Amino acid sequence: MRLANVLQLGIKELRGLARDPMLLILIAYAFTLSIYTASRAMPETLSRAAIAIVDEDRSPVSGRIALAFYPPYFVIPRLISATEMDRRMDEGIDTFALDIPPNFQRDLLAGRAPEIQLNVDATRMTQAFTGAGHIQSIVTAEVNEFLSRYRSGAALPVDLTLRARFNQELNKSWFGAITNVISSITMLSIVLTGAALIREREHGTIDHLLVMPVTPVEIMLSKIWSMGLVVLAASAFSIVVVVQGLLAVPIEGSVPLFLLGAALQLFATTCMGIFLATIAGSMPQFGLLLILVLLPLQVLSGGTTPRESMPEIIQTIMLAAPNTHFVILAQAILFRGAGLGVVWPQFAALIGIGAALFLFSLHRFRLFLR
């Protein structure tokens, strides 16, 4: 193997990527706008939920309840009639419809237990599951304040002192930004290497390479280092400019150490991209295979859901995936400020998985060139 061949072939891949505007737009979007918008969309599950109120009592207590709903959790409630309630729910205008019955205040002061009807549009799952609990708490607080003539907090037998580590503000956008960077690194590394190989086969340039004094190892390594370098540079830009700059997410650990782990992750995932490209006959087939591979990698690696909440057999199987170890080391370094002495098992696992994927992909690549 000649390193000069690997270098020149890699430069050829970079030139080919520079002439593909769609891939360049995808890279720019995945590491900038996609990360920014996805993290900003994660602040709260209940945000500006649409609610309407049918006030059939027209009493002071029903007015207090109507005024208790305000942004950012709810939009300003719209007062409607009972005949409008079902129609608005059917048309999807309101997520919640609160019906306060007649004589509600009179029954309340008489010591009876009047009921308020709450209609919920359960098709809006992210808001319906938590919104009903918020509405019940708001109504209960307003009724208790009305009956007691003053507002008081509930006396708890135990005082819970909360100390949040690594994310003192409990800001979900911090977690979302890092998770989306990890997902973009995995997705783009597989897409770029696979697309580079399929593009050469469709253009016929792979036949030109076979008659040149280059080996399959040199061809494969050139695609790995060139596409990996592009993704690594884009991820460094995203961490520094988008995550730390625009989103103001504090990075506790060493960014160079994280990029070193990202380089090992890229070595494994670029090999995976070459393997998928040797199986797929065209770009549409490659796209379908990509969906089958990316979804388990992103959902089961611990980036979206903690690994501890998954079945043990899934946890064991996913240890063979590079994403699992990359998510662990990325969160440890960027959130908790861990050093190499803490994350070295993940580095070792990525080296082992990357080497195994390289040998397996090289064998498949040689069969592909025949």
UniProtKB/TrEMBL annotation:
List where the protein spans the membrane. 21-41, 173-198, 224-249, 256-280, 286-305, 317-337, 343-362
Q: Which InterPro entries does the UniProt record give? A: ABC-2_transporter_component, ABC2_TM, ABC2_TM_bact-type
Pfam families membership: ABC2_membrane_3
This protein's UniProt keywords: Cell membrane, Membrane, Transmembrane, Transmembrane helix, Transport
Membrane topology according to the record: Multi-pass membrane protein
**ABC transmembrane type-2 domain spans which residues?**
132-368
Compartments, as annotated in UniProt: Cell membrane
Keyword check for Oxidoreductase, yes or no. Answer: no
- Stored PANTHER family: INNER MEMBRANE TRANSPORT PERMEASE YHHJ, MEMBRANE COMPONENT OF ABC TRANSPORTER YHHJ-RELATED
Q: Which family does it belong to?
A: Belongs to the ABC-2 integral membrane protein family.
Q: Report what the protein is called.
A: ABC transporter permease
Q: Which organism is it from?
A: Siccirubricoccus soli
